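Note to self: the last two entries modelled the partners one at a time, which told us nothing about the interface. This time every component goes in together.
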Amino acid sequence: MSTQVPETETETEAETESKPHQERRMAEKAERREAADRERLAREELEAADETVHLKVFRYDPEVEGKQEPRFDDFHVPYEKGMTVLDALMYARDHYDSSLTFRHSCRQAICGSDAMFVNGSQRLCCKTQLGELETPVRVEPLPHQEVVKDLVVDMQHFYDQMEAVEPYFQTNETPDGELEEQRQSRENREKIKMSTRCIWCGACMSSCNIAAGDNEYLGPAAINKAYRFYMDEREGEDLQEHRMRVLEQEHGVWRCQTQFSCTEVCPKDIPLTEHIQELKREAVKSNLKFW
Amino acid sequence: MHEHDVIVVGGGGAGLRAAIAASEEGADTAIVSKLHPVRSHTGAAEGGINAALREGDSWEDHAYDTMKGSDYLGDAPAIETLAQDAPEEVINLEHWGMPFSREDDGRVSQRPFGGLSFPRTTYAGAETGHHLLHTMYEQAVKHGIQVYDEWQVTELAVTDHEDPEDRKCHGVVAYDVKTGNIEGFKANRGVILATGGPGQVYDHTTNAVSNTGDGYAMAYRAGVPLEDMEFVQFHPTTLPSTGVLISEGVRGEGGVLYNADGERFMFEHGYANNEGELASRDVVSRAELTEVNEGRGVNDEYVYLDMRHLGEERILDRLENILHLAEDFEGVDGLVEPMPVKPGQHYEMGGIETDENGETCIEGLYAAGECACVSVHGSNRLGGNALPELIVFGKRAGQHAAGKDMKEAEITTGYTDECEPGEVDTPVAPGSIRQTSDDVAADGGALADPTAVVEQTVEHERERVQSFLEKDEGLQHAAIREDLQASMTENVNVFRNEDGLKTALEDIREARERYQDVYVDDPSRTFNTDLLHTIETRNLIDLAEAITLGALAREEFRGAHWRQEFQERRDDEWLKHTLLRWNDGDPELFYKPVILEGENKTYEPKVRSY
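The predicted structure of the combined assembly is written out below.
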């Protein structure tokens, strides 16, 4: 489903709850001293904060009545300098609505689980500073992927495309001697360095118009993974040819229309478009060789 | 019910290595992980992997450094196994294509690290863990290992024999995050726990949000002792606002620490006159906090780590990732400014008691990686020793579980003749709320049939989850978790004293009581992270208690464990491991001696000086 839905706003901020069921819920919670204390603290924090940030967050749950129609919820979160979009989402979840659902883990831009669509662009929430965004900050799930719930998308297709390029090192020759390395030149390591930084966040795939229209297109992440091995001097020529056959297939490198959207959104600054172009050149060269 | 020969719980470094090893032994192997494997926290490791690869270095030296670093609380058979197996394992990774940093001759680079007598830390930029994790995941794909990603294992299916050492593990129960289904996973040969660290017990930690110590807690409640949990490593260089780690590689390359007065305090205030910034992590962490406590910190909170003098070229070549982290998470450009740093929880040296083959005292149950305690790190882990631990002991656990004939372990597990009972004076009877202590499959009957044991555990877990979801009101886990983390950070941190530890135990007891009323607000079965975190919070409470009880019991100062009342390492009495047994929710303390006899020599405890 698409995330581009008309905005029907529902207020979920602690201060301004208006819906009857939420009032009932508040009353129930008030019976619990600690829960009430917590709400009060959150409110005080909000009032005491010099600044708050207004988030508009996409909500959808196929199972829960009232959430089956996609909508945006508003959250007002106390702001401190240095706060990221992920910090704000966690605050909203832990203080206002524990059903707010999103993936996150390392909060240091290496696990790749919190790529989302923030103010119209694919970003990792943990490394996106709130202070640099226009408000209200719109947080949506990655476009062109099926939404499982709220900000969580189904990543299976992404993983399948990654697996399609045989994403593992293959070499026929390992050196003799128990503790002998396969030598690799510093230049060659430098050559593949950027391609090895991919964290499988899926931002590039989500930003790619071609991938959106062609479900079989390998996509920038998978092609970059293939690049990582194709350019590694330790894999032999036979394997290079084999990898090129995968890359040259109908839904491989030639589908890329050099729009650079993948490169623009990559949170690890991998020059994805450039890598795809380089592989196109390699493909031409290898075709010439067979002529 | 799913069925495999070997079930690996957790898809990080240790889990992947275990799965690959088991698969290579011919076992039908599956990984069950609450994350996708490439999301695991091994990816955040930065510095490197220690292995004696070069002329002039030897596994004996690596073992010696590790024993010294451990402050003589490591077991020699475990440490020597680590040092002996690491070179082959690192080369093995290299053969799998891991993009290590290289020397001019094409061999893998090595660099100096704290507490090492030789520059034996191999690395891949300052993102070694990321490359290790992805390289191993690639191999797992190559082996066709089945991965159940986003399945949270909630309990172990273990028989209910009275004595934990008679129990057997037949599988696990897991909750499919995507659908809410709870299902059994039967393991015909073995279950390997590789669930990583428990950093979320603290509120300032380098650990991922997912690092909630699930493996420790499940093994503990099933009857396996937790060993040396009081030894929590605080990393001296974490970013103050987030806890994001700044690798020891920065100091390894020549980075220096300054206080607010511009003094290079490691030398100028005499904390480590020889090693300076490269003293062991516990020494540097205490030095930094002492500076702050004595008014020489910056903003009363942190100190500076400076790498500017290394030059842009060297920084970009070896520490580029650090520039990004400092910029993205602290807004500091490491090329033109020093980086603010302070100590943060980083690593749990203790863990599930295992032998060198990864096996616990429960038949068929293994553990490897941070959640296990062999014990390799003793009271203080040296930088660069966590990653070799993952691959060395992950592999051994995988092989053993798959049925490979292993050399008999020298380290014993469970309560043996060597063990002595311990006692600890606590202000509250810890853990004595029985309603939440139901551990093993258990109804006193169907012990023999593995399928029945798994089925019973599934039934039990379905009821537990159902009760969270059915409750309409109560407390939310987030409040309990937050208060627990705050108390642990306040009371069971780098500096510890008896009053603080007792306060923490009271707070933990209160968390336990409040947890009785916990409920899950989100009624959905689809991707219910509220439920996931509620289950995790219970695990955090059990772990916080184990850490704090251990810290209260150990009346000495050793490695990372500093006690105000006991300022000496007391070898006459304390060359022993602290062990805690669940005992139906009333933790029972006992001790076993440290093994200092190695293959060729006995390690004599010496005064640690840096």
